[in-house]
Amino acid sequence: MCRQVSSQVIKLIFSAIFIVGLTGCSAFAESETKAVPALLISAEANNTSQLEQAIASLLNTDNVKISPSAFVQSSLLAIERAPHKDATGQLIMGRNYEMPQMVQLYIQGDKCSIKLANAEQSRQLPKLKCKAE
Q: Measuring CA to CA, which residue among 124, 34, 130, 114 is closest to residue 66?
């Protein structure tokens, strides 16, 4: 009887260790794969051009201009549509009531990406270095 009880205790201990191990692994995997808002580590011209290209791709436009300090202090950036002008530079339309597009910088693991705030579209930014906000 003593042997049967100790066998059951050993099985119970191994089961508990197994469950705790699985819980720890799933918690680690979740934190590893979850994207969190991020900031650029440094403001460089190369970073700006890569960000402009990625944002233009997300917005389906040819050209986007952003400040070199974009995403250095905040993970969010508002992108307004450029006003329409004629060949002489005069505005064609009056006021623009369209809301700006919000884009956000994220980090997942050690990879940076940019995403439209209210959409699932995103672009990877493999050459950028960023940190969690």
A: 114
Task: State the CB neighbour count (10 A cutoff) for residue 122.
Answer: 17
Cα 109 off chain centre by: 10
Q: What is the pLDDT along the chain (133 residues), one digit of tens a residue?
A: 555 555 665 665 655 565 645 455 544 444 457 889 999 987 777 788 899 999 999 988 888 899 888 999 999 998 887 777 788 878 777 677 778 889 999 999 989 999 988 888 889 998 889 998 8
SS (HEC) of the chain:
CHHHHHHHHHHHHHHHHHHHHHHHHHHHHHHHHCCEEEEECCCCHHHHHHHHHHHHHHHCCCCCCCCCCCCCCCCEEEECCCCCECCCCCECCCCCCCCCEEEEEEEECCEEEEEECCCCCEEEECCCCEEEC
